[in-house]
Design brief:
This is Proline iminopeptidase. With about 425 residues, this protein is an alpha/beta fold. The chain contains 16 helices and eight strands. Strand 7, helix 14 and strand 8 form a beta-alpha-beta unit. Helix 5 runs parallel beside helix 16. The longest helix has 30 residues. The relative contact order is 0.11.
Amino acid sequence: MNHATSHRPWRIAAAVVLIGLGLVLAPSLAVLVFLAGATLTASMPLLTAAALIVLTAVAWTLTWTAGRLAFPARRRLAAAVLALALTAAAGAAAATTLFRPLDIDPPAGTPAGEYWDLPTGSRIAYDHVPAAGEARNQTVVRLHGGPGTPGDGPDDLDRALAAAGFDVYVYDQAGSGRSERLDPADYTVARQVADLEAIRGEIGADRLVLIGGSWGGTLAAAYAAAHPDHVDRLVFTSPGALWAPEWEGQDEGDLWDRLTPEQNREMTEFESSGGVRLLTWSLLMEDNPDAARALIPDAEIDAVFARLLSIVGSATSCEPGGAIDIPDAVPGFYANQLIAADQLRTPDPRPALAELDAPALVLRGECDYKRWEITREYRDAIPGAELVYFEGAGHSIETDRPDLYIDTVTAFLTGAELPLPAYTGDADPAA
């Protein structure tokens, strides 16, 4: 037995290890290059090409080295065949997982209304419910929650307020519903405040009555802090955090904590069905939302958001898992995620609100998932603000106690006696 033959088993074993390493290392490095490159560019073709080049180069290098050890006469051919096979397999896998659109039916959407083309650059869909009978010369603007989750246009409260003489406007905030989507960098609290101020100009009202629900309450407070002279009255329904940086890293109350076991199971199944595509999207959102949007465009990710809302929506009531009407409006997921992130960079509105001269009403439900301290802070931050507590109501007070909700808001805006007493204590009334 000659010297070369005696080393052949060792060479073959080493070659097998190198080939195995190539099968693991080449795809791993390709993924890293894809994700790292996404911090520099949002071009999916460029990122894909870079990943495939790295995959092919690493696979060829390792298989060429393996071939040199075990099959020196055919190492170039073996390296080329294996590298190309691995590249083809990776390309096929990406086409059927990463780049294959998710099979989710979009929500029906709501009929097109009227539009404002604002000087901010936003194209905003809105509905107008004119005052009936004797007009009060007061303009109400409803601010939906989310961010990015509008309703289906005017509701019973809007019609009741119009019947009481108020001019009522309901609009889909930029990036949601029927309104045009924005570039990711434009989803900021400041842009939403600027849009609302531009809307005031379009309406031609000197002062606005703002009714904000959940995130809409946060937006109303931000607007009031920026434009105090243009606020008539404020209604905060189950508002979100007044100033998000105060709650960073703390538990401010999470909707997910109220999910039933069945809802949790549905969520797990739905998230799993998104596979590699949704996982990659979530990683891209951390470093470059433009790249995330290039991977999954608005229409597709909004359908994902609508499905999520259909699963968890009932947790906003006092009966999680029960029947609840989910709006047909198309929600905006990029608006939701990016405005929520931007809230952590906003200035503190409380000093300005401490000087506000406008009546304010804060509404809270017994089963609201938000921390009691968040709701109470609105009452404490605005001079003279009143807080009303609704038994048997969740975060969505208008869903659980619709008649009492309408009566309370209408009474406050018309100056009548409230149907419920104001809560003046510091402790959580639900405790």
